[in-house]
Amino acid sequence: MDGMLELLTDLAKAGNGTFHDCFEANVRKMEATFSAVSTTFTSTRTTISTKKKEKINLDMEDADAWKLPSGWSHWYQGLILTYCADNDTFTPKGTEQPVSLREKPFAKGGERYAYHLRKHYIHYVAKESIYDEAYNDRLRFHKSNAKSHFFAQNMATIFNSKLEKAGVQHSIQFVDSIVIRIRLSPSTFRYLSCEEWLEGHFTKYNSNNGWLSEKEDFKNFIAQAFTHFSYEFSGKRSMVCDIQGVGLKFTDPQIHSVDKEFGRGDLGQEGFEQFMASHKCNEFCRAVL
């Protein structure tokens, strides 16, 4: 745990004590909190992944179908839930508000379907498991994603400070992730992990299985350097990968960790080795390491 304590200490210094919205304690308390969160997630991972689940096969719609007036659900009542790492819970934010969801997903990944969702004038990408999750596991499923975002955003804070100190005039950002709870009936809900829709050309820079883009531009080099940096800075105990987004604004990261604490996509040591076998250090690696 000493490596994680060092990581948290540096995160606190780089963020001037403000980057953890939920953390208002000293480093020792943060260490205990992260340990508790890790234990909870390890337990959750074991509970969920040891049971064989059936994949749900859904009809897909075209990526631009959301622009059409047809195909949107009626208005549901939706409540925003934000993740707080110090007690590993989701906390309601505000009151229920009308939301509208596309009836069909527009994309499918290894773990989740992606839908378009609207809340007032905000356009979100909403994701849920491709597996037939037990009702009591549906919110728990989204904790892995929330924890990954939390970790990636904090690591990005450190990385950006290193870039700035090296005189690099670029920075990265991970969009915020929330859960929206949709009320289906007075006592049943649907939970969706949501990130704000990014306008522009969407690019995938690397994956969680060792694939890396070979594109020769600075955005790709920075993305690969960030993944490498996260591995070295954490004492080779974790790695932020599956980097994708619009420009240097990223979304939906995956974390590999020694103890495989970050859901089904966390490949642990195998994930570390696959990335490092494919990665070639570039000028941004040298600037921050």
Please tell me about this protein's structure.
- This protein has 289 residues and is of the alpha+beta class.
- The protein is built from six helices and 13 strands.
- Strands 1-2-4-5-8-7 form a six-stranded antiparallel beta barrel. Strands 6-12-11-9 form a four-stranded mixed sheet.
- A hairpin with a 4-residue loop joins strand 1 and strand 2.
- Helix 1 packs across helix 2.
- The radius of gyration is 19 Å and the shape is globular.
- The N terminus is likely disordered.
Question: Would you kindly provide a brief summary of this structure?
Answer:
The chain has 289 residues and is of the alpha+beta class. It is built from six helices and 13 strands. 36% of the residues are buried.
Radius of gyration from CA coordinates: 19 Å
Tally of individual helices = 6
Q: What is the CA–CA distance across the termini? A: 22 Å
- The order of strands across the largest sheet is 1-2-4-5-8-7
Quickly list its features.
globular, 34% helix, 4-stranded mixed beta sheet, 289 residues, 6-stranded antiparallel barrel, disordered N terminus, alpha+beta
Please outline the helices and strands:
Elements: H1 2-14, H2 27-49, E1 76-84, E2 89-101, E3 107-108, E4 112-119, E5 122-129, H3 138-165, E6 173-174, E7 177-185, E8 188-196, E9 202-204, H4 218-233, E10 238-241, E11 244-246, E12 249-250, E13 254-257, H5 268-278, H6 283-288
Parallel strand pairs: 6-12
Antiparallel strand pairs: 1-2, 1-7, 2-4, 3-4, 4-5, 5-8, 7-8, 9-11, 10-13, 11-12
